[in-house]
Amino acid sequence: METNLRKNFLNALQGKPVDRIPALSVTQTGTIELMDRAGAAWPEAHSNPEKMAALAFAGHEIAGLEAVRYPYCLTVLAEALGCEVRMGTKGIQPSVLSHPFSKSPEGLEVPEDLLQRGRIPALLEATEILAARTGGEAGNGIGKEASKETEKKNVPLIAGMEGPSTVFSHIAGINDYLVWFMKKPDYVARFMEVCTDICIEYANALFEHGADVLCVPDGGLVATDLMPPKALDLLKPGFTRLCKETRGPVILHICGDVERSLHSLSECGFDAISIEEKVSIKAAKAAVGDRARVIGNIAPSSTLLFGTPEHVKAEAKQCLSDGVDILAPGCGIAPMTPLANMRAIVEARDEWYEERE
Ligand SMILES: [Zn+2]
Hints:
With 357 residues, the protein is an alpha/beta fold. The protein has 16 helices and nine strands. The strands form two sheets. Strands 1-4-5-6-7-8-9 form a seven-stranded parallel beta sheet, sandwiched between helices. A two-stranded antiparallel sheet has the order 2-3. It binds zinc ion (ZN).
């Protein structure tokens, strides 16, 4: 079928009519099988722009997903702000080891050389490589003009990045982060203000280098039953400003059972909200209304990792029948996920349309 995948995805994000409901992943796509086939493995693919791009493109070219999604960790901004990061292994994602602002937000500000720090230059280079391969163009965030050779591709390029609350939790450490929501709202406000500024500067750089859409996994712990509902109010000003000042579409990915928070989150201005299987698509659609689109939510562990292609298809078709706007895994794809299960996502979408004809 002659679908322009970029246009189709951007239409879906805006709630416009689509050729077919997009089937892709807005969360991480690096698996061992794709690493072997692309010749680009973790941990190198977290910092080498060519390897990062090759592994990301494999998610589209080999697994069939209707977007290219990179990178594969949530530690880029943490590292740029001085956290020590362990880069992990071929099967284990990077993690943050130290927290330079574990006492207070004192001295926290946006670094003047933010875009030159840590792996950010490598991420921006990978963005340019991928923008060229997906038929996009740096500079506008939409990729409107495709060159002749890549015209047929026109695949949307989704950049993942930490949101302000994740950056906050990394630089402060998770314990202080959670305690301060209860005991030090002034600290939370200061952290969120600066971390939001940092996210906006980095997000706009990603758009300028050719990303089409951002996916920001963020806020999960605060939006679940673990925390009082008023804790979420401390995140909303940052989220709202992020959506307003970022020059392109922003997807919030949020982990956990966040059903009670979805209405409130949908008021922040995100184009779409990506949810785990812990929230049903029907409940999410009801909570979000027409303020944002709903993305999800094939179970990444029980179904994609441990199930068969038949399991994946059954769950995917249920998501479609329940009214999901964009079909996707409910969270990051586990590295050991079989390629056949990844391919089953798009196959299920195609079968679902055929079965309705
Ligand atoms: Zn998640």
